[in-house]
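Hi everyone, sorry if this is the wrong subforum. Our group has a chain we'd like a structural model of before ordering constructs, and none of us has done structure prediction before. Sequence below.
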Amino acid sequence: MFDASDPAGVFAGMPIDHQDGYIHFSTATQLGETLRLHFAGQGDLVVFSVRTGDLGGGLRWEPSRGGQLFPHLYGELPMRAVAQSATVAVAADGGVTLPEWVR
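Answer:
Right subforum, don't worry. Here is the predicted structure as tokens:
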């Protein structure tokens, strides 16, 4: 679903994002658990480091899993806001090795 060569220079989200009306983000602290819960057994996943200051008013912090505040982007993700990206695979048991820049 992700193609960095999108001529519009934006990422519009995944089907779950379209269904919920926003692009789901996780903080670096939340990412491992998000991958374990929702992406176990999947490979070729792309994770981004996003400069949140480049997102404007579309970024909202809202309660989700266990009352934690999660960042949600209402609108498309401008690819110019992506600082880094990497492809990861999540093992069937939910284990994942994240890039060093995820802190």
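For your construct planning: The mean pLDDT is 92. The CA atoms of residues 44 and 87 lie 6 Å apart.
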